[in-house]
Design a protein that fits this description.
By secondary structure, the protein is an alpha+beta fold. 30% of the residues lie in helices and 16% in strands. Helix 11 (239-250) packs across helix 16 (365-377).
Length: 672
């Protein structure tokens, strides 16, 4: 642990007055001052060998300020008697007389400027702790609240922020309970980010030391919940306290787009405001462990003696020295530890604001600690009891969880077709959806669709279009197995999934269903889908293959089916990349001799049993139409265009003649 010596109180007074004088000469007003030291900084015992850890933890700094307990007590008595420091009673009277509209200077009057400057802080480099600037609303927590509870708004007690029992009782939550808590706080993470509920890392082992008496066994892919649980056990600090500190420092519990840097400095440990964070302490596990380690160190290392329990000490309101300090009688070790870690108390403006903005002298760290703890876990006072693993204190189930459970029971529960659950309910899907996996598939819920069971074979097809995140969205109906040839289907927000014995599970989007329906779906000429939709065709088109044809779609033409009757003629002119382009209408049959035709962007394709499938377009098509198409004496086309005639002429043959087009001469036709 980094130790920087602290000058004796008289020396600190002199240094503070000198600093104030220099600042007045330069800028004309008081400027923040901090205690700095010249001694060499030794290595932290938590990151060196066990022998070094033990030695450092027992050593007392050579700095004059780190004297015996008797000297420390004497110094405190001298402070209390100092004429510049008013009593608690005087400070209270001053506040009452000043009223609601009193300026901040009334809070400063409790402690003189030189005494404020003499208070050690991590900002001044006096020791390692949390010295990141307080975020007013880290993780946008207040967006989750409909109102601030009255208890949270009035619970702050400067001398007793939290009881020793509430801070130093480990086992208050199991790892699974912590994970459940994180899942509920962030049902859905923003795309491209890893939220706390999904965070995992490979951890390293840590041996017992002077302040964390338990060991930490490293493991691969540990979740944030597992890391917090193991740190709590190793260092004897409440899981609830660690969770709340994690929120007040970086907002990670409720953050939906956290950066990697927030994880690297998760507890704000060793990150001074006026310099780069110490990368030696980077990493989520490192930050959690060192924070818990430090909380214990504050209660056992005699170096930390300026917030003695049972005595009154000045506690600053803000890093800016000009904001002053107020006298606080520290009632327990846990409260002292919080002030060492985040050495500022909220002023009246901060407390009146609840979770909101105070004034330029407001600090929010310890205020937010009480607010978060009270909102999430109840009072910060009283005794704490470890959670009973056999009786986890789970929050009330969400609407999605209740609906999924009801659906599963309606399907027969564990003895039904879906069998036992293979995972817990997760509510982190797109659109606020939830799901739970079972032996026979899954049950998915969204408010607009309700709970729908999805069998494993339907799931296989749904996966092909990225499930609920893809074109199909959530299921909005039950599976039906009443189709021809033993087929089944299930409807979704954006289409369907079909399952057949010969084609397996294939999704069909709503656009493709429209084209498929032109041919009466699975009962018509196309049959069942054989593969997933493929996009990236000319003009942004897509197609899907079926047993006996395909469906093609573009934004300008919509979706239309091409069966084996018209597909051959279209293929002869390079399909969508050729002269015909995409189909624009459904195939029409019932023509003479049971013929069919289909309209395309650039022409038509005709089919009959005797003539086959052939395209027709351009001037020859215009002439054919003028003669009456298939009703004319020519009958159906029997070939495509042949442009190998003299003069660049193109000719197309029909059952009973031909039509020829020559550049500059137009068209002629001849009957057989």
């Amino acid at each position: 642990m980094r130790r920087v010596g602290i000058l004796s109180r008289p020396a600190r007074k002199a240094r503070a007055l000198l600093g104030a004088a220099l600042a007045l000469a330069v800028v004309g007003s008081l400027a923040p001052a901090a205690a700095f030291a010249d001694e060499q900084v030794p290595e932290d015992p938590a990151v060196v060998s066990e022998q070094s850890a033990a030695t450092t933890g027992e050593e007392v700094p050579e700095d004059p300020a780190a004297v015996s307990e008797q000297s420390a007590a004497t110094t405190e008595e001298e402070v209390a008697e100092d004429s510049a420091v008013v009593t608690e009673q005087d400070a209270v009277s001053t506040e009452e007389e000043a009223g609601e509209d009193a300026p901040i200077v009334t809070e400063q009057s409790a402690v003189s400027a030189d005494e404020v400057a003499a208070i050690p802080t991590p900002d001044g480099g006096d020791y390692v702790g949390s010295n990141t600037a307080d975020e007013l609303d880290p993780g946008a927590f207040t967006s989750q609240l409909t109102s601030l509870s009255a208890t949270a708004a009035t619970a702050f007690n400067a001398g007793n922020i939290i009881s020793d029992s509430k801070m130093f009782t480990s086992g208050t939550m199991t790892a699974s309970q912590i994970q459940y808590f994180f899942d509920k706080k962030v049902p859905r993470c923003d795309s491209g980010y890893t939220c706390l509920k999904d965070f995992k890392m490979t951890t390293v082992s840590k041996s017992p030391n002077s302040y964390c008496s338990g060991s930490y066994s490293g493991a691969r892919n540990e979740s944030a919940a597992q890391i917090i649980s193991k740190v709590s056990k190793a260092c004897g600090v409440s899981e609830k306290v660690l969770i709340v500190m994690l929120q007040k420092e970086q907002g990670l519990v409720t953050h939906v787009w956290p950066s990697q840097f927030r994880y690297d400095i998760a507890m704000g440990y060793a990150c001074p405001d006026d310099a780069a964070c110490n990368s030696q302490y980077f990493g989520f596990q490192n930050q959690m462990y060192m924070a818990a380690y430090q909380l214990q160190r504050y209660t056992k290392d005699k170096y930390f003696n300026w917030y003695p329990v049972g005595k009154t000490s000045p506690v600053r309101y803000h890093p800016n020295i000009a904001c002053g300090a107020g006298l606080v009688k520290i009632e327990n070790k846990a409260t002292a530890a919080l002030y060492y870690y985040t050495p500022y108390q909220p002023n009246r403006a901060a407390l009146r604001a609840g979770y909101g903005v105070g004034d330029s002298c407001s600090a929010y760290g310890n205020r937010n600690f009480v607010n978060y703890y009270t909102e999430w876990f109840g009072s910060t006072h009283g005794n704490e009891k470890p959670a009973a693993p056999s009786q986890p204190s789970k929050p009330a189930p969400s609407a999605g969880e209740q609906a999924i459970t009801a659906k599963w029971k309606a399907l027969g529960g564990a003895s039904g077709v879906y069998g036992r659950a293979t995972g817990s309910v997760k509510c982190n899907l797109a659109g606020g959806g939830c799901y739970q996996s079972f032996q026979g598939g899954g049950i998915y819920w969204k408010k607009s669709t309700g709970a729908q069971a999805v069998s494993q074979n339907i799931l296989d097809g749904w996966w092909k279009l990225d499930k609920e995140k893809g074109a199909l969205g959530f299921p909005n109906g039950s599976r039906r197995c009443v189709l021809v040839d033993g087929g089944c289907y299930q409807s979704f927000e954006g289409g369907m999934v079909y399952v057949t014995p010969h084609n397996g599970s294939v999704p069909v989007t709503s656009a493709m269903v429209t084209g498929w329906s032109e041919q009466n779906r699975e009962k018509g000429a196309l049959g069942y889908p054989t593969r997933t939709m493929v996009c990236g065709l000319a003009s942004g088109g897509c197609y899907q293959q079926f047993d006996h044809g395909a469906t093609y779609w573009t934004s300008s033409t919509g979706a239309h089916a091409t069966t084996s009757r018209t597909l051959g003629g279209w293929r002869a002119v390079d399909k969508e990349k050729g002269k015909l382009g995409y189909p624009t209408k459904a195939m029409k049959c019932g023509l003479p001799s049971d013929g069919c035709y289909q309209q395309f962007q650039g022409g038509k394709v005709y089919w009959s049993k005797n003539s086959g499938s052939h395209p027709i377009y351009g001037s020859i098509m215009n002439q054919y139409q003028a003669l009456g198409n298939e009703h004319s004496r020519l009958g159906y086309p029997t070939s495509g265009e042949n442009c190998r005639y003299s003069g660049g002429a193109c000719r197309q043959s029909f059952q009973h003649g031909y039509i020829q087009w020559t550049p500059g001469r137009g068209t002629i036709y001849r009957y057989n």
